[in-house]
Amino acid sequence: MSLRVGIWMAALLLIGAWAAHASERLTVPRADGAQTPLQVYEPVSANGCPPLLLVSHGAGGSESGLRYVGEAMSKDGWRVLVMGHRESGLPVLKQDMRSDGFKGGLTALVTDAPAYKARFMDVDAALAWSEQRCHASFKALLGHSMGAITVMLEAGARNKLGLQPKGGFDAYVALSQEGPGPVFPDGAWAPIRAPMLLVTGTRDQGLGGDYRWRMQAFDGLSPGCRWLAVVDGANHMNFGGGQFAAGVQQSTTTLVAAYLDALRGGHCGTPPVLSGVTVKQK
């Protein structure tokens, strides 16, 4: 083989590897006539219909965020749909911030019941689009920050906003989950029955306090294949896809894959041993 042919073949392999991990952006119809944007990560390889992971971004985010989750879980064999929530994206957050400062604007958005109702319609739209392609035998919902609130609501947590979404996922993953506060009362998590993984970090500050405030959500869950992971030194934006957080994001996706793959196999599994990560179970 000549050097030129070898270089050409290597280039083709690199292009093929890139294409296997590429994603597609599209929009799908929602029940109210609006459109839900999706960033779709198809599995690198799959036999039959792959398991489905829906991903919900935080306040001010978009379908372009949380790419690290989409790429890692598609490599693990999942179809990943990162939803764009237009009613709680960056333009809406900027508008709220102008009227009431950062903390006030953020509080206004994460306590806006209509914004969550729109998110629930986005979830339904994404599920319908995936179902048209094939019926996934296992479906999970993952969210960060406001997306984690969405996860808790879908899972059946009590709330102060009068919201009752459909739920019905086989498992849930909450990154930077909320503790008691403007959305969730004390004891909000007791009704949740589905398996749940919660992930926070020792620098993960929120509207109600630090990571110990976030850990109260885990404390409120009844036993039943629950994991709580605390990543040493990780902050809020690390989990949301911020730059210079490769180690945190690698640990997070390793946890998510181990947890969901075990559940898909019919058992709870054992948390992976990761440097700087502590995991509680119940």
Overall description:
Strand 3, helix 2 and strand 4 form a beta-alpha-beta unit. The radius of gyration is 19 Å and the shape is globular. The N terminus is likely disordered. It has a single domain, classed as 3-Layer(aba) Sandwich (Rossmann fold), CATH 3.40.50.1820. It is built from nine helices and nine strands. Helices cover 39% and strands 20% of the residues. A nine-stranded mixed β-sheet has the order 1-2-4-3-5-6-7-8-9, sandwiched between helices. It is α/β, with parallel strands linked by helices and 282 residues long. The termini are far apart. Helix 2 crosses helix 9.
Distance between the termini: 58 Å
CATH fold description: Rossmann fold
- Round the Cα radius of gyration to an integer and report it: 19 Å
Low-confidence stretches: 1-20
Helix content: 25-40%
User: Could you give me the name of the CATH homologous superfamily?
Assistant: Alpha/Beta hydrolase fold, catalytic domain
Main beta-sheet annotation = 9 strands, mixed
How many DSSP helices? 9
Number of strands: 9
What letter string, H or E per element, gives the SSE order?
A: HEEEHEHHEHEEHHEHHE
Q: How much of the residues is beta strand, in percent?
A: 15-25%
* Biggest sheet, spatial arrangement of strands: 1-2-4-3-5-6-7-8-9
- Please give the CATH class: Alpha Beta
**Overall form:** globular
CATH architecture: 3-Layer(aba) Sandwich
**Mean pLDDT score:** 91
Structural class determined from secondary elements: alpha/beta
Domains, number: 1
Organism: Dyella koreensis
Signal peptide: 1-22
GO molecular function: hydrolase activity
Protein name: Alpha/beta hydrolase
